[in-house]
Amino acid sequence: MLSQFLVQHFIKDYNDVEDEKVRNNYGFLGSIVGMVINSILFIVKLIIGMITSSISVTADAFNNLSDAASSLITLLGFKLAAKPADKEHPFGHGRIEYLSGLIVSFMVMLVGFEFVKSSYARITNPVAVKFQIIPFILILFSIVTKVWLSKFNNYMGKKINSSALQASSFDALSDVTTSSCVALSLILSKWTRFPVDGYIGILVSLFIMYSGFTLIKDTLNPILGESPDEELVDKITNGVLSYKYITGVHDLVIHNYGPGKFMASIHAEVPQDMSIVKIHEIIDRAEKELSSKLNIILVIHMDPINTNDEEVTTAKKELEKIIEDYPMIKSLHDFRIVGEGDTKNLIFDIVIDYSQAITKEFRNNIKDELNERIKKIHPNYNVVITMDRDFI
User: What span is annotated as the signal peptide, if there is one (predicted)?
Assistant: First the structure.
C-alpha cells in the first residue's frame, strides 16, 4: 500500500511505464527512497555499534552506507542512461544502467571483504559486547524497514523491468538476513563471553560478499549478451506471422542496448511468385507497425520460398520426417530445390541446439548422416546443408 501511495503521489502518469520519462521517474523515486532509508539506518546502526562495542552491528551499519551509495549510483545511472542518442552512441546510453548496477555490485563485495578482516580481528582480540534493550529494538526496526524496502524495490523493478532496482531489492532482502544475525549476536552476548560477535560478523560479511557476487553475475549478463526475454521473442515472432503472405519466420536476433531499448532482425518466408513490390509493402508496413507497437527497432529480411511446386513440397515432407530422429535439430528453413534435369541441388538450413551438438565433429556427422539418408531416397540430389544456431 505504501509503495503504491508513493508512486501515485510522486510519479505523474505512473501507469504509462512504456514512456521513457515515466520509467526514469520510477528509477529516480526508487533510488531516492533507498538513499534516505539506508542513510538513516547507517547513522542509527553506527551509533548502536559504538554504544554496544559490536563489530557485527558496525559492519551492518557500513553495509547500509554502501547501500546508500548504491542508490546514489543507481540514480546517476538512470540519469545518464536517459541521455538521448548522439553521433557516438546512435542507440542511446541505456547500457549505463547496467554499468551502474555493476559498480554497485563491486562496492557490495568490497564492503564484505573489509569486514571479514575486521571480524577476524575481533575474534583474535575479543571485546565485550554490551546488550541494551533500546539498541536491540532499533535493530529489529531496521529489519522491518529493510523488508519493506525490498518489497518496494521489487515492485518498482517489476513495474519498469529494471534489473538495477530488482538487484537493489535482492540486496535489501539479504540485509534482512545480516541484520537478523546481528540481532542474534546481541542476544547471545548476554549469556556468553565467547566472541560470538566476531564469528557472526564473519558470517554477515561472507553473506554480503555472496550478495555482491550474485549481483555482479546478474548485471554482467545483459552486458555480455544474455538470451532475450521469451515474451518479447513471442511478440515479435507472432507479430510478424500475423501479416498476410508471411508463412514462416527464422533467424531472429535481438540486441539489447539497455532496458527497453532493443534492435531485432528476423527473416520472413514469403511466396516466391508474388510481386516483389507488393510483398515489400507488406514487409515495410510490418517493420513500422511492430517497431512502434513493441517499442523496438525491427528489421525484416525477405526469404522467398516455393509453395506451389509438388516436388519441393514432397521433398520437404520427406526431410521433415527424417529430422524427427535428430532431437538436436530444432527446425529447418529456406528449403529449396535448384537446377534442372537429373541433377539438382537440394538446399536448406537447419537450426541446431548447440547445447546438445557440442563439437564440430558431432555437427559434421549430423550433416553426413542427413546427406546419406536423403541420397537413399533421391540419388540425383546434391545436398547442401547450412547449420544455424538459435540466438533466442
Answer: none
Q: Is 41 exposed, middle or buried (0-12, 13-18, 19+ CB in 10 A)?
A: buried
* Interval 236-275: pLDDT, tens: 999 999 999 998 898 899 998 887 788 999 999 998 888 8
Residues 6+ apart with CB under 8 A from 389: 351, 352, 354
- Yes or no: say if 269 and 253 are a contact pair by the CB < 8 Å rule: no
Q: Which among 240, 29, 43, 216 has a CA at the least distance from the CA of 142?
A: 43
Quote the CA–CA distance of 128 and 106 in Å, as a whole number.
Answer: 32
The residues, any chain, with a CB within 8 Å of residue 46's CB and separated by 6 or more, are 58, 61, 62
- pTM for the full model? 0.68
Query: Which domains are present in the chain?
Result: 2-224 (1.20.1510.10), 227-306 (3.30.70.1350), 309-392 (3.30.70.1350)
CA atoms within 13 A on the CB side of 37: 24
- Residue-level length of the chain: 392
CA distances to 17, 24, 36, 166 from 161, in Å: 9, 11, 23, 8
Rounded distance between C-alpha atoms, residue 196 and residue 202, angstroms:
10
